[in-house]
């Protein structure tokens, strides 16, 4: 049997292929190049570089591949990909390394925010360097125990400066700009901050089991001075309270599927190479486990597909809850199937996906919070 004879492409992969009727679009070609970069370079990089160090080389390659501009309009030099396209980008990067998907995904969400809410001057000044990846943005939104933007503790004080602390900021240490969400009077505003200027303190790297390489740190604003017209997204007092209460979690679903596919491939490779000459009992157990993995991945893919199209049957929240939880089981079962090689040595990427997968049900919106909303709506 050929090595990959039974490997069916996922829906996400199919989306990178040329449409039957015509040539591949520039977006298809760009996505294929990113897919090749993940296949050929990311694993090789991780095999020879410490996982906790910032991957300058990979970030430079992503810049060259136009990944940072995917969500930006063509008039600012971007690829103008709609949300399903950028979810496919998240999927591809997650197949290689969740940390890269986190870095690029955060930046792309901020590109969309700037495009949607920025003034004409801000869009002109910010979006072109964002699209080129010359200005990579991070976001300082979340505060623990604050369920609603109107209750944020980070505030613009009467002196016009920004004060407050954000607990977890992805890429805090290497971002060129950090968008901080804060209360200013009765409005929730997004302040564009320059982490190199006084009034922004980046804390030490937060210890964690996974999502390494791209920094994760607290950011404290200690009286950051800014221009309320130029540096507040949408201009002085532009209120984002309602905009911040609507969210799309499809990129996290795509990221779960990306890890699932990578883990599945690793398990399949290992089993094919290592199972010759095993006892019938071992082969039977492996078949069952492989069947379980295959079914789990297929259901995850179906769940993903159910969030797309004109009449999705699942919300992105429901799909995120399911797929991030299914991934935990899939990656545990794959590790079991590979034995020692699933934990150390042979299939080292599997261990990394396992550690990274632990964060997925938490980030964005935690699964329990989503389930509680889903239950609320069902009861209503
Ligand atoms: C790797 C990583 C990267 C991150 N990157 C960023 C970033 O770049 N920018 C940023 O702003 N933030 C970031 N975060 C923060 C992230 O968004 C929050 O950790 C996440 O939203 C969960 O919030 P919390 O930690 O305050 O958990 P809590 O709100 O304290 O929730 C903990 C648990 O309490 C329960 N719970 C809380 N509220 C409810 C509710 N309403 N209904 C039901 N149950 C509830 C649930 O069981 C929940 O899982 C990151 C976090 C991680 C781990």
- Main beta-sheet annotation: 4 strands, antiparallel
Number of helices: 11
Globally, the shape reads globular
Instruction: Give the CATH H-level superfamily of the largest domain.
Output: Butyryl-CoA Dehydrogenase, subunit A, domain 3
- Terminus-to-terminus distance: 54 Å
Radius of gyration, rounded?
22 Å
Q: How would you classify the helix and strand content by structural class? A: alpha+beta
What's the number of structural domains? 3
Into which percent range does the helicity of residues fall?
40-55%
Poorly predicted runs are: 1-11, 13-20
Distinct small molecules:
flavin-adenine dinucleotide
CATH fold category name of the largest domain:
Butyryl-CoA Dehydrogenase, subunit A, domain 3
User: Into which percentage range does the β-strand content fall?
Assistant: 5-15%
Average pLDDT confidence is 92
